[in-house]
Design a protein that fits this description.
The protein is mostly helical. It is 84% helix and 0% strand. It has 10 helices and no strands. The protein is globular, with a radius of gyration of 21 Å.
Length: 244
């Protein structure tokens, strides 16, 4: 009982330390530069406590549950030796986690609101919901495809820098032909696709898979899946904007 309590206490202190710089910056500009009191100080303090506790529990949950689970699943697939099943799992994992990403849900809804205000889509709830849903599905398909490609790269030992550089060259070329309205959305989609849900599971999958294959180095080959997951939504959303 003492061990988990000590670990959780250490995580709590780490969360306070990690958040301290941004707290100091905000307090300095609010009090010294703007010279104004904090609005709703009580709510701010309560919210800050919730953030610290939430971050503590989130990190603890990752190390206790999600990281071991992802690595165990990857090792089980590696022992089973079914490449098709592993690739299918990688796609489903990337697709499912991305659909549930809170950041992607938020930016898709915001993009739909802006598109309706700009006249790109009809100014109706149905049109905005359809736009946001389609955007989320395109990004989810992109991440699912990216994880599949990343898993295949680990299995085959392909150099990651060649694939990443080639992908960004393709993004640059597509940007020149894509509608201006979709370029910013596409670039942001690459960032929000890899957030609180996707990153832990995908990272654990890559590290666990690389550690389970003879001749692969978990440090060299296990990482890089997140880079694919950031790159592919830009390609897919740019293509979606060019076609649709």
């Amino acid at each position: 009982m003492k061990g988990p309590f000590v670990a959780l206490s250490r995580r709590l202190l780490d969360a306070v330390r990690d958040l301290a710089p941004i707290i100091v910056v905000i307090a300095f500009f609010q009090v010294v530069v703007l010279q104004q009191p904090f609005p709703n100080l009580g709510s701010v303090v309560v919210g800050l406590v919730c953030v610290v506790v939430g971050l503590t529990l989130f990190i603890q949950g990752l190390e206790t549950g999600l990281f071991p689970l992802g690595e165990a699943i990857a090792q089980a697939f590696a022992r089973k030796g079914s490449v098709a099943a592993l690739l299918a799992f990688g796609f489903c994992l990337g697709f499912g986690t991305t659909v549930a990403e809170p950041a992607l849900i938020a930016i898709a809804a915001e993009a739909a609101d802006v598109a309706s205000q700009a006249g790109a889509i009809a100014d109706s709830d149905a049109a905005r919901e359809a736009y946001a849903f389609n955007l989320r599905m395109v990004v989810a398909l992109a991440v699912g495809t990216a994880i599949t490609l990343g898993v295949l790269r680990i299995l085959k030992g392909w150099p990651i820098h060649v694939l990443i550089i080639g992908g960004y060259v393709l993004v640059t070329v597509m940007t020149a032909f894509a509608p201006d309205e979709i370029v910013g959305v596409a670039y942001d989609s690459g960032g929000v696709a890899t957030s609180t849900i996707t990153v832990p599971l995908v990272t654990a999958l890559g590290v666990g898979l690389a550690a389970s294959i003879n001749g692969r180095n978990a440090m060299v080959d296990g990482f890089g899946l997140i880079a694919f997951a950031c790159l592919s939504p830009m390609i897919f959303v740019l293509g979606y904007g060019m076609v649709v």
